[in-house]
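Inverse folding, one chain.
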């Protein structure tokens, strides 16, 4: 591991990756290999998670292609020095900010979106001019295998390389003095990553998760809200870090929502969703049994069917639960199960969410701008989406990241470029003039001049 880091650091110090043409060439190579091997990647995603080709393209491959296009289109602008104003006390001088790459980046990706959540940060890191070490999850072995092969075919290992192995290898990687670490995964592992990075004072970006609330008030279009929430909850069988984790619904529309949600699920996945092969499966038996346990300890008002042989769980609504003790409210669900909690006032909603760790996303369904603005202001979350779910991730100009226990730092578009670069402030002074009042010895007139300019 140390030798890999040393080789990449030497290559970075050669200056090759600082050249914009070199970065463009790297991005184009990645773009070409993703496009040419799209079918192979979609097949790997289906083998790992049971994703349909359409879902794989919509949520992974297509978004990666869009990220590459954005980076190629805007790279020159992102990398250009930014002029900033200079106070008169520094006259004559000019000031600007340079974006310089950190050096060697370690990217650790999860299993739930093994293509998107490895390639998207890689695109940002390469655009920023870094060398990269990638670590894939062992829970998505087919996708990891294809990506390892493709990356080795287009990049020399001193520039981009993949490191395999178990948790001992991951621990060894984290103990090394990388220049930056980008981690996507659970809050528990995120704490371990941050603790390991602290030993070497390595900056970290943590894309974690949490219980993202979904709020439906009495003015919402219930039919549309049910369909869009069903979309967000069934995508990848709910194994999405920004999936709606629980539903706060106005008491007056709860029964209507249940009816509309059931209709939306049946329209999308049929009467027996667990038999639909276009519906993604749970990643492995351990996660399946954890989710099955949540079902057994709650009141199911819709769905609840399972197929252990294919690791599929029907989209399910839970009702009549105590949020303070219900197991499904004590941890991130990460599956197609949606607990419902009725409310009567927006103040109840605010108090409920504010009393819990800050979520990665917050979804608000309302027809009233006043309610929308109130919740966006009072509820802290990594991101938010009004009258839809998940799709804010597809906007490259919006930063994506968490806050509090849902993460730190952000990426996508220029935000990702900035995440993998250091903002170096530079002052360029003129040599034509050199005012004497800043130099000792200090007289009364010098002090007056200093106070005048620095007032």
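Residues assigned per position:
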């Amino acid at each position: 591991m140390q030798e890999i880091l040393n080789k990449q650091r030497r290559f970075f110090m050669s200056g090759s990756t600082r050249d914009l043409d070199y970065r463009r060439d790297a991005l184009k190579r990645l773009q070409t290999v993703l496009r040419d091997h799209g079918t192979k990647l979609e097949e790997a995603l289906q083998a790992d998670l049971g994703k349909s080709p359409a879902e794989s393209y919509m949520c992974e491959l297509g978004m990666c292609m869009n990220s590459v296009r954005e980076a190629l289109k805007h790279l020159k602008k992102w990398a250009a020095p930014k002029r900033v104003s200079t106070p008169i006390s520094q006259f004559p001088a000019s000031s600007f900010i340079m974006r310089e790459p950190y050096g060697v980046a370690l990217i650790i990706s999860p299993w739930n979106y093994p293509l998107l959540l490895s390639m998207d940060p890689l695109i940002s890191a390469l655009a920023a001019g870094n060398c990269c070490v990638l670590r894939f999850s062992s829970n998505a072995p087919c996708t990891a295998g294809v990506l390892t092969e493709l990356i080795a075919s287009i990049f020399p290992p001193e520039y981009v390389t993949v490191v395999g192995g178990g948790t001992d290898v991951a621990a060894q990687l984290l103990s090394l003095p990388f220049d930056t670490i980008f981690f996507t995964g659970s809050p528990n592992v995120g704490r371990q990553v941050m603790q390991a990075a602290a030993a070497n004072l390595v900056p970290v970006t943590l894309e974690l998760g949490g219980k993202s609330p979904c709020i439906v008030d009495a003015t919402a279009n219930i039919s549309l809200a049910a369909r869009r929430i069903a979309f967000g909850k069934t995508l990848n069988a709910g194994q999405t870090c920004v999936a709606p984790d629980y539903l706060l619904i106005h008491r007056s529309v709860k029964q209507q929502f249940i009816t509309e949600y059931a209709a939306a699920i049946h329209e999308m996945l049929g009467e027996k969703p667990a038999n639909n092969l276009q519906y993604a499966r749970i990643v492995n038996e351990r996660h399946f049994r954890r989710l099955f346990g949540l079902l057994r300890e709650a009141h199911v008002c819709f769905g609840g069917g399972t197929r252990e042989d294919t690791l599929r769980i029907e989209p399910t609504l839970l009702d009549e639960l105590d949020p303070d003790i219900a197991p499904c409210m004590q941890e991130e669900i990460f599956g197609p199960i949606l607990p419902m909690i009725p409310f009567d006032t927006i103040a109840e909603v605010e108090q409920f969410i504010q009393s819990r760790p800050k979520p990665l996303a917050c979804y608000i369904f309302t027809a009233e701008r006043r309610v929308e603005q109130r919740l966006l202001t009072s509820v802290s979350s990594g991101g938010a989406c009004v009258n839809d779910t998940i799709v804010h991730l597809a906007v490259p100009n919006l930063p994506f990241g968490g806050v509090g226990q849902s993460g730190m730092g952000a990426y996508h578009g220029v935000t990702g470029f900035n995440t993998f670069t250091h903002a170096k402030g530079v002052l360029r002074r003129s040599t034509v003039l050199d005012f004497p009042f800043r130099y000792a010895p200090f007289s009364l007139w010098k002090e007056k001049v200093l106070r005048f300019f620095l007032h």
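The first strand starts at residue 82 and ends at 84. Residues 53-79 form the longest helix (27 residues).
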